[in-house]
Design a protein that fits this description.
The protein has about 325 residues and is of the alpha/beta class. The chain has 3 domains: about 5-70, Beta Barrel (OB fold (Dihydrolipoamide Acetyltransferase, E2P)), CATH 2.40.50; about 75-235, P-loop containing nucleotide triphosphate hydrolases (Rossmann fold, 3-Layer(aba) Sandwich), CATH 3.40.50; about 255-310, Orthogonal Bundle (Ribonucleotide Reductase Protein R1, domain 1), CATH 1.10.40. The protein contains 9 helices and 13 strands. It has a 6-stranded mixed sheet with strand order 10-9-8-11-13-12, with helices on both faces. The chain has a 5-stranded mixed beta barrel with strand order 1-2-3-5-4. Strands 6-7 form a two-stranded antiparallel ribbon. A hairpin with a 4-residue loop joins strand 2 and strand 3. Helix 2 (about 110-120) crosses helix 6 and helix 6 packs across helix 7 (about 255-265). The relative contact order is 0.11.
């Protein structure tokens, strides 16, 4: 069948398994593969479908379809993969990112900064979820919530416990029909357990914290989208112990908006906010207007983001330089034929 005679429809990518995809139409879920033409035309991994994508499909046989095209993405959640220059797309078309931390071993304000920067860079609304609240006292929980409110004044906070269902109903109410929500956080914070509660059944594997290392074990090995009874959609993500910043310059500036605003008043336009005379940011840190821990984390994430942007630009320049060299060689060959 010629492509112009094919009948196309739209589906949502709900899972990716080693080169094959699961897609959901209005009626059912199907196995899918990308066409050879699409594979040949892909310039990078970002051109391949990921969970959350809407794709154009055609029928292959009874339970299989072909993916011809990824439709424009509304939002993109990505990170810098370890040891790679290119960003790794985690999922797309997400409306809200639930950033999950366990209140016992995992609680760390600086880690929130990192996840919030990635969400902000992708134009995704963040919500902080403090899980496993059954492990601490009410006074300890109140103190942790106060720390978050002080540091992140405009971010919604939810508290949950899978053990006694505390806060699960409130979390479920926050999930709206036709909206996509993803759960982000380190291994072992309880993301899969929360999703199992929302689904009302044990669909996802869960594992306990390693007694020897005190670190979470990876229960989820791939990303998958699930549709709740109310029509809301949730994505479970593998736990990430290290989350690299990629193309998140605007996200960092947004999360640290107080520092970014002060930076505009610095004496020097290229101020690094580390040693310069007339630095408004350093003055605010000295006057305790800005928390020192937050300031140091800002420098760390900004440096990481700037380095990624720099290496990406350098790579582009090298590619352009190589292209010009190839063009000159080919021109020289043509002239000397």
């Amino acid at each position: 069948m010629r492509q112009k005679d094919q009948v196309f429809s739209v589906a949502r990518v709900v899972a990716h398994h080693r080169g094959k995809y699961r897609v959901r139409t209005a009626e059912r879920e199907l196995w899918a593969e990308i066409t050879g033409k699409m594979m040949y035309g892909a310039g990078s991994q970002a051109d391949y479908p990921v969970v959350g994508d809407k794709v154009k499909i055609s029928k292959l046989d009874g339970n299989h379809v072909l993916i011809h095209e990824v439709l424009p993405r509304k939002t993109i959640l990505q990170r810098k993969a370890a040891g790679k220059d290119a960003p790794q797309i985690i999922a797309t078309n997400i409306d809200v990112a639930f950033i999950v931390q366990a209140v016992d071993r995992d609680f760390n304000l600086n880690r929130f900064d990192r996840y919030l920067s990635i969400a902000s860079a992708g134009k995704i609304k963040p919500v902080i979820v403090l899980n496993k609240i059954d492990l601490i006292s009410k006074s300890e929980l109140k103190e942790k919530v106060s720390q978050i409110i002080k540091r992140f004044k405009k971010i919604k906070i939810l508290t949950t416990s899978v053990l006694d269902n505390n806060g699960i109903a409130e979390l479920a109410k926050a999930i709206k029909k036709q909206k996509i929500y993803c759960f982000l956080g380190s291994s072992g914070v309880g993301k899969s357990s929360i999703i199992n509660k929302l689904l009302g059944k044990n669909v996802l594997k869960t594992r306990n914290i390693s007694i020897s290392t005190k670190k979470g074990k990876h229960a989820t090995t791939h990303r998958e989208l699930f549709v709740l009874e109310n029509g809301g959609m949730v994505i479970d993500n593998p736990g990430m112990r290290e989350v690299g910043i990629a193309d998140a310059g605007d996200g960092v500036e947004s999360v640290f908006f107080e520092i970014s605003r002060l930076a505009k008043s610095c004496k020097f336009s290229d101020c690094t906010h580390t040693h310069e005379t007339g630095c408004r940011v350093l003055a605010a840190v000295d006057a305790r207007e800005i928390d020192k821990s937050k300031y140091l984390n800002y420098l760390k994430l900004k440096k990481e983001s700037d380095y990624y942007a720099m290496t990406k630009l350098e790579k582009r320049r090298k590619d352009q330089s190589f292209g010009k060299m190839v063009h000159k060689v080919m021109k020289h060959k043509r002239e000397n034929r």
